[in-house]
Amino acid sequence: MVESTPTSDSSAAIAAPVSTRGQLPELVAPDGLREARLHERAAVVLACDVIAGRLGPGDQFPSAEEIVERFGVSRTVARETLQTLSMVGLVRVHHGKRTDVRPPEDWNVLTPVVQEALRREGRLQPLWHDLYEFRLLVEPTGAAWMAERGSDRELAQISALAAEMRVLAEDAGNASRVLAADQAFHRLIAQASSNIVLAVVSRSFWEDVSVVWLESQLSAEELQDVAEQHTRIAEAIVRRDASGAAQAMEAHLNAASTMDIGHFPTEP
Question: N or C: which terminus of the chain carries fewer CB neighbours within 10 A?
């Protein structure tokens, strides 16, 4: 039986559920290290029903009492689950009345709960597409700004990151480290653009796409291609070639989009 005390939603206290109870899967946390709290895990299971269309816009959503019965959790956890789903735009809670499912345009896809549900239901591809479209709007300009405005120290840092990526990409076992250096590379460009709004948006963006980013699965050859693309961006920035930096960034994002989206199976 699944058990949870009213005063804590720690998943450490969860025993294996019986077959009549819902399964509470782990949620990939932003830092990739901790197990999500119980109400977040329940929220992912229920979010999958919405994402997959098993519950449509306007449909009545399970009540707190039904969540307690389905998962064997406390009422406190059930209420926190509903609050989480409301905050990410999946449901609308009418206090004292029913809870309704909200339409897809209301979903906050830049949250781990929604991204994890999309991942579990095999529906991440459209989000990948939209994320790359957004990046193409801002990152080529950011690279140009860094070429024009970046300090000598920042230019040395971007060159060092590109060199690190080239070395790491020689071993396919370093894929996660290449992706970490990749993220640091793009964060640095935003920071060195001397545009505070771009820097803040970039920081929030990379924090928000935590689950999606973990889905990037590049082959050994693709890792080397990505490293080479970053080298071309860094070289243009170091030359203070704003136009060249923007073009190299645009070429990289188009290539990376093709790689990442191409790994998804055709969706229904």
Answer: C
